[in-house]
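Long-time lurker. I teach an intro course on protein structure, and each term I like to show students one example going from raw sequence to a predicted 3D structure in token notation. This year I'd like something fresh instead of my usual example. Would anyone be willing to generate the tokens for the chain below so I can use it in lecture? Attribution to the forum is fine with me.
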Amino acid sequence: MSSVIEAAAAAVGKEGSADWDLKPETHAALIAQEAGPLRRILQRPALQDIIAIYREGDSNAKAGQNRYKRLATTAAISSFVAVLLGGLMLLPSDQALPAIVANAIPLIQFALLAVSIGSSLSIAFAKPFETWMRERAKAENARIGLFKAVMAADEPVHAGELPLLPLQLEYFRRFQLDVQRSYYRGRGGQHARAVTKAGIVRSAALVLIGLAGLPLLFSLLGPEHTPAAFTDLLSGLSGEGEASQRILLCSSVIGGGLQGLLASYSLLSQSERNASRYLDTARNLEDLSARPLEDARAAAASGNRELVLAFVALVHEQISSEHREWIALRSLVPDLALGKLKVASLPQLG
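-- Reply from a regular --
Happy to contribute to a lecture. Here you go:
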């Protein structure tokens, strides 16, 4: 690494816990005096227009996300509890339930199913998921727009100050590349752990469903092919009595309800999809932080702005792909002029 890059990296500073917060005016106060050209760019009022778009999109996205998750969770849990109550009612009982309890349970089930259906209809008509995705794309596109504006800006360099291009690259590296690397690595790990937990719950559901099929399995295999240990262990459940049939039916109903709950949460969290996607993006950003970053630094030291901007575009392509499908062209360029679209912040999918 050249001395000018080392000086620029030192002037921009080391990673901080609040680097994720998109506040260029705060960033300007963190960097050293010799990074004067970059400081003046970050203090420009024009950047605040981009930040206003980001904050509006971020706020709306969080509201949409919270509403969607609240409604979807309510629908899933209400439906599962209704199924659970129905399954438990199938269990044998030595004495009849009190009339008030027997009458209350169907009413509770009806209310729970009504809540579940109402929540599902709210999702269908209010479309909070679409609001969440569209506004998040708007916010993240504004984030990219901010760094593009900083990288494209020009500013005179005064005596005693470092060259602008290395400062711009190091600012991008600290507050965009490193922040996104940490985010995708952390979120990818969270989704991977959620997938593991879901696998445990899915296994439990399959065991419950499988118990209901044991009598049929034993009858197909015949006594001579059924291990004695299994016969002794499960003979109580595979008998001919009504009690054993009720237990097996309850097991099947609850297992099916549990599987339905798991499927709902899988759609809600999208952990299976995001675990792979986020970890792949994290690995790609790690790769870009190796030799490509060093090549970009060498280009910055020699004043090769074109190569530095090409590196920036590669990073933005990685972090924008999941939001690109929600970005409407007309929202970026209302008149759809080709000349404006060409420079719009709309990276291509990798």
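Some talking points for your students: The two ends are 29 Å apart (CA to CA). DSSP finds 15 helices and no strands in the chain.
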